[in-house]
């Protein structure tokens, strides 16, 4: 089946015949029949089913579920990085992830080099790293990393390539198929898709993910079974949601690009985007996030996000309902002004997560709010 179109079926519970995965809301299991699970911090049947689903979606040997996207990132990196390890990241990524590497990991005696936007391939080629960590579509400028090209460089240099594919989702891109070693997701976003659960996912080879899973059990970054159930439910509609979201986002990006109150629009599906040709080659869809700058000040931007009737001002993305945020004071507030400037995050920049609402309603909402700007 063509990459980006494969979907999984939930199947049924073999013990009871239930056609939805039961929520095993228990801490432990009776001996000896429950010896496989022992304790739900280590293994829970509902959570294990979710891990199997992400493994199938990503065409991986093994999947692991975590308590959050940051839990997935921290558990994975604390497993694979050691004092003295050399890691390469890029500056234009989620602010909390960036701080995890530049503050926490460096304090453990790990060397972390940072590539400026668009320079990750050159830096990965110039020097050997133990780990190269990237967001497949960066947050919030939506730079598209050429994963096939980067994976080739990493294999030549003996580097592990770890990807965060939250923005692309398994519907639009499969990094493991394109050569990455591990793929991570904040499942709170598009995969669960309803802004009602916090969860993380990871997938890769059995050798690597078994080690990561042992770290998860030790750190306690384990997912609650009810949250796992909600993510499984979200996966059932992931393909149809992403089809609508991809389409809506493309139309909105094209609309914003022509609006006289808009300074710049960043969306991989636009020919004006710096990585448009890369996106065309490696993505099956361009995703649900549209970033744009208004012609105005920070106060104008902050005022604008209060003017919407359909779009909700909130620091999240990937849900069925559209949300909008101000990166400089929300998702990337932990970065210094100098760091935001290097990335390209301006005070007038907004990040729109496009939902599944009628696209004409969303465009009308945007138009009325933008018209209110002085």
Task: Walk me through the topology.
Blueprint: H1 45-57, E1 62-66, H2 69-80, E2 86-90, H3 95-107, E3 111-115, H4 120-126, E4 131-135, H5 147-157, E5 160-164, H6 169-172, E6 182-186, E7 200-204, H7 206-219, H8 225-236, H9 238-257, E8 262-266, H10 276-282, E9 289-294, H11 298-304, E10 312-313, E11 323-325, H12 337-343, E12 349-353, H13 359-371
Parallel strand pairs: 2-3, 2-4, 4-5, 5-6, 10-11
Antiparallel strand pairs: 1-7, 6-7, 8-9, 9-12, 11-12
**Structural class assignment:** alpha/beta
End-to-end Cα distance: 51 Å
Low-pLDDT ranges: 1-7
User: What's the number of helices?
Assistant: 13
Describe the protein:
It is a single chain. By secondary structure, the chain is an alpha/beta fold. About 35% of the residues lie in helices and about 15% in strands. The protein has 13 helices and twelve strands. The protein has helices at about 45-55, 70-80, 95-105, 120-125, 145-155, 170, 205-220, 225-235, 240-255, 275-280, 300-305, 335-345, 360-370, and strands at about 60-65, 85-90, 110-115, 130-135, 160-165, 180-185, 200-205, 260-265, 290-295, 310-315, 325, 350-355. The strands form two sheets. The protein has a seven-stranded mixed β-sheet with strand order 1-7-6-5-4-2-3, with helices on both faces. α3 (about 95-105) links the parallel β2 (about 85-90) and β3. α1 (about 45-55) packs parallel to α8, α2 packs across α7 (about 205-220) and α4 (about 120-125) runs parallel beside α5.
